[in-house]
Amino acid sequence: MSDAIKEAQDAISDIEDLYDTDYQIGQDNIEKWGFDMHAPVFPTSAALILLFVVGSLLFPEESKLGLEATRNWIQEVFDWMFLSAGNFFVLFCLVLIVLPAGKIRLGGEDAKPDFSVMSWFAMLFAAGMGIGLMFWSVAEPVGYFTEWFGTPLDTPGFTDEARTAALGATMYHWGLHPWAIYGVVALSLAFFSFNKGLPLTIRSTFYPLLGDRVWGWPGHVIDTIAVLATIFGLATSLGLGAQQAASGFSFLFDVDGGLQTQVIVIIGVTAVALVSVIRGIDGGVKLLSNLNMIFALLLLLFVIVAGSLGGFFSNLGRTVAGYIEYILPLSNPVGRQDDTFYHSWTIFFWAWWISWSPFVGMFIARVSRGRTIRQFLTAVLIVPVVFTSIWMSAFGGSGLDQAAEGIGELAGGIGDSTLALFQMLSHLPLTAITSFLAICLVLVFFVTSSDSGSLVIDSITSGGKTNAPVTQRIFWATAQGVIAAVLLMVGGSAALQALQAGAVSMGLPFTLILIAMCISLSRGLYHERRLLHYNNVLQQ
Amino acid sequence: MFNRILVPVDLEHVAKIEKALKTAAEFAKRHNAPVCYVAVSGRVPNRVAPSPEEFEVQLNMFAREQADKHGIETECKAVYSVDVAVELDDKLLEAIDAVGADLVVMASHIPGVADRLHLISSNAAYVVKHSSVSIFVVR
């Protein structure tokens, strides 16, 4: 008996030694001017951001060409890697749901969740996918059906099969795969931070692989890349989003959708984001996410009822059937003939999701303490897929119905992809109200992204501290707005697209980082299971 | 005159609040009142401790050390927040009520350029403005 106890005690102390680091959170930080900055990461990130912004302003066309060529090269050459990695992440998450490791609770056995289930879901969507779902849920399926820009597996458009393929392929892009990518990052961060006491920053997930070296240069590089991918991803999508919102405004209210309106949109979004940042998670991003979820559900209900209830259920059947039918052929990287669809849609999306994963994953981690791994992955994978199926069937389905029946602009194909949602709504009743609601939703999703993004960058650039002064978050939220506005005013779309291509290119290094994260997390979970086992032995 | 004294502490920067701790101890002796040290923390690992459990151990230890050092009766209370940087002020106000303190002794920075530019705010100023109990601000 005493041998068993001795053995358990030895095993526990061996495992605890593995995570016993002398590193103190914030030890490399400089506290000055109301900031609390991690020494190399904050200044290096800031300098590189400035460099890239100035570069793309001085040479917008050249940097657009260069960075877009880089992105295209990455997507052409490493297409198989993106696709296979995506498949691997889905399997990895699904296996974890089933394995006994799923019982491990983030934050320890007695941890209680910080947020209610509804607020938690609302924040999951608001951080990473809200805007995309608004813009693409109509444009993407209708685009496939009308042969706008490639079709899944080269399925001919305007046919009954094309409708199923369109909904199935859209679900494939917005379903399990992106959420598995976010899930891997979020779970790794949450586990190593809440269960192992490591700082909440990307590098911590590599502790089991690199040991104390993560606090040195390898860690600085990982964190800096994460900051750059996040800020450029957010700033460029704010800039390009402002153009979309402005074209929405001009479509709806007959105002000029030019530069002036676009800059006003950026200033407005940034101003609201600042207020939200200053009010903190509870009073800011959580409140807005909840509000947005309520309005999104109202809009969803309206589209379902106003379209036709029968039509919705038939489209829902089609979405589910299409997803099941197409998920395997579309996940296959070998012998693909549908080049345009494969590279310009799937691989682009995969690089995009992966380059956003540090941001969304970290935010999800921050709000997920107290859930078990099984609850966490079910919520991050299964629930979004169910919700997105309903959303796509309503919005995409209505769009497809209109396109197939020759109603309105969508019947003529996608002219301006950003207007597809409004074109669909304009053939349902109460257009003025629903379109206005839609545009408000888009703007608030921008605010929640900007807010949660600032929170994430703040934490990474302060070495994993989550209590750094609010000044620092204000700095990053403002930086996003300023970068977006300056790029738009001086460099125009070319400068924005250049930097966006740069951000998406970060998807390549991050694919490797994510694969390493899976290995690291597996080791961590294995250790945690053994720790729990030996603790049980001791208790008996 | 005072029955319970509350002292907000930041275990990350104990050196900076040394004077406030001494002042609080003097009040405690004169009025024979216990001092309750309140620390607001996130549950995310921070400089003080990697977990809330460890944080409470540290805070208890701190309170005991103060008791020995100044010969006074001490208590402590850890308060958790999902966003310390923003919620600190309001969590302190809640703690004042919860603890039933009638005097708060707290350290505050000397206002400088950053305050004039409204870059940083003062926790002490906020508590003075929004609490009904007596506040002693130490600089």
Task: Please supply descriptive tags for the structure shown above.
heterodimer, A: about 550 residues, mainly alpha, two-stranded antiparallel ribbon, 18 helices, 2 strands, about 0% strand, globular, B: about 140 residues, alpha/beta, five-stranded parallel beta sheet, 5 strands, about 45% helix
Please, could you describe this protein's structure?
The complex is a heterodimer of chains A (540) and B (139). With 540 residues, chain A is mostly helical. Chain A has 18 helices and 2 strands. In chain A, helix 6 packs antiparallel against helix 7. The longest helix of chain A is centred in the middle third of the chain and has 49 residues, at 259-307. Chain A starts with a helix and ends with a helix. Chain B contains 5 helices and 5 strands. In chain B, helix 2 (52-70) links the parallel strand 2 and strand 3 (74-80). Chain B has 139 residues and is of the alpha/beta class. The model of chain B has no long low-confidence stretch (mean pLDDT 90). Chain B has helices at 18-31, 52-70, 84-99, 113-116, 123-130, and strands at 5-8, 35-41, 74-80, 103-107, 134-138.
